[in-house]
Amino acid sequence: MKREYVTRVAKRSFLLMTILIPLLIFGFYAAIIAVAISGGNEKQYIAIIDEAGLFNKKLPEAENFNFRFIDNENVNDFLLKYHQQGYTSLLYIPAFDLNDPKGITIYSESQLGPITKSKIERVINSGIENKRMLAAHIDPTQLSNIKSDVSIIAQVGKGGEFKKGSSDISSAVGYAAGILIYITMFIYGMMVMRGVMEEKINRIAEVIVSSVKPFQLMLGKIIGIGAVGLTQFVIWILLMFVLQFFIPILFPGMAHAMSAQPGGPGGMQQSNGLTAVTEGLRYLNFGLIIFAFLFYFIGGYLQYAALFAAVGSAVSEDQQEAQQLTLPITMPIVLAFVIMTRAAAEPESGLAIFGSLFPLTSPIVMMARIPYGIGTTVPWWQLGLSMLFLVCGFLGTTWLAGKIYRTGILLYGKKASWKEMWKWAFKSN
Fold first, then answer.
1. What are 141-171's pLDDT values in tens digits?
2. Confidence (pLDDT) at 277
3. Residue 316 to residue 297: CA distance in whole angstroms
4. Which phi and psi angles does 50 have, rounded to 5°?
5. Where are the strands (E) in 312-368, listed by range?
6. How many CB atoms neighbour CB 43 within 10 A?
7. 102: phi > 0 → left, psi -120 to 50 → alpha, else beta; which?
């Protein structure tokens, strides 16, 4: 254990990855916040020749759009000078049939982005709708007052005790935790397998097993490499926690954007979006989520690392043979990822419950459900049963892998198969 842990932690690559990954995550997080706060900064100055009288020379300013109506100008003549006069685009609205509007064109020197084009289309469609309502003797103001835009407040709990929740944030956090465990089980599991193969190829294992039992050698490698992963996770969590305090320093306008009243176009959406994220994160039980994450990472890693170690002991230098033997191990991990995508969206579905209880899939699937709430969406008995099954699964796979490892680590010159490995696991001695 000490050798596996110290040799890997002392490597420069470990230090670089441990420090760089939180910094990269923080960088992406800061970039998202910067974009959310600032929004688009490119101001569009659009000239409008409205021959149809669609807007009656009255058009409110929209987000990053400045509209100016041009009078007494022919569209063909103005096309030659609109850019010199400081306009980025020219919107031409010819006279058209209100029931079949055609010919509306926007001219610009560069291709319009899809978002910009969509916003201009919404302005035009709104003008046509208002014209049609007036033609049908419908008051647009009265219709606007009738429309409703209700946002439901989610309260989660039972027995008269409720707290605010956010399904979007819970789904995102669960999805991220599940993916992280999915990736790390592959990375560290393969690391265990390559370590066992290296010792076998270099005949180091033959020397070591003269002093320790094969099962002790396998378990020491598994726990040592697992401790490396756990150390990395703890450092990542601490670094991310510390880096959170730099957000207000780097973005002093963030608090103002979060608390700003909806005054201008786009400001309300940005403020509401940031507020929703902050509110959703505030009501998550991060203490329980971190504890569960560490438990399921350790349990899932120990369970699969034992199987990867067994495969590593059975093969020699043939990498293709190793890939074939690891296929039955990786399939449950991929299945867990597929179930997790469903569990993150529907945490109370039958498939999600099964995936969170079955020990080969529970480390990934249960982490997708836990952010929704323990005791509410995920009953305590399901969490306890899932943890118990995972411990039993780890003990079972470790026993099975130990039997295979004992024979395979000293076997050379024979191509192994799962049928052969099954015989090693259940032979009497």
1. 777 777 776 666 566 555 556 555 556 777 7
2. 56
3. 29
4. -105, 80
5. none
6. 10
7. beta
